[in-house]
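[User] Once you have settled down, look closely at the record that follows, and write a paragraph about the fold.
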Amino acid sequence: MQTPDPHNTRPLADLHNVDLILWDLDGTKYTYHRDIEEHVYKALIPVVKQRLAENGLPPLTDAQIRDIGGRSFRTHSVSWMGFAEEYGFDWRTLFEDYQNAISIDVVLGEPCDRYLALLEKTRALGIRHAIFTHSNAPWVWRVLEKLGLKEFFADCPIFDLHFTDGAMKQHGRTGYEIVLSSLGVAAERVLMVDDFPQNLSGAKELGMLTALMDREHGYAGTPAPQADYRFALPQDLLTALLETR
């Protein structure tokens, strides 16, 4: 049996009602490279500089780009959106250019036989899976392939920012409403899993169960009322869910 986490605000038995797990991707299904920030700016800085030059705008130094990117991340959970807002860039093309530039080396994690076996057990019980990410679909497939999960998720819905027309999780219910409408499932039958507490607020407001994936225990001792549950690994979550069946 799973050891109860003192942060859990709902009994694990409530997971019995889950028909679908809606997963975040980045930072939830894998551990980031320890130098993730350097990887982000290695991709973002050339993209922003090129976009500024194409639009005849004054150049920014690397330090200035890092500053704007940092503020963007704190507001949007992504480093590129701030440049779309401040300079009027089309967010879709900026988003695509950044996603195409980021290295798959930021993804750490090896295919895990136990994890795959647990996923297959949930499928055998009729539990569906989907992904709702602030990345784009091509990046999702690159990540899943590296993690050895591409085959399992091959027939699972993938919802990216293009699908939600830029509606991000931390901005409220809109993105979640779009996703739920497409899935055709009642909110109370869905478990949303993310590594940022603020990204879970809209899901919780809609009546979804919510789980914080706290891989590095970075939120230890930190209140996260948006999360009904906390888990260190996806395997722990799946084990807890299966124990309710």
Observations:
- Residues 36-105 form one domain.
- Residues 69 and 79 are 4 Å apart (CA to CA).
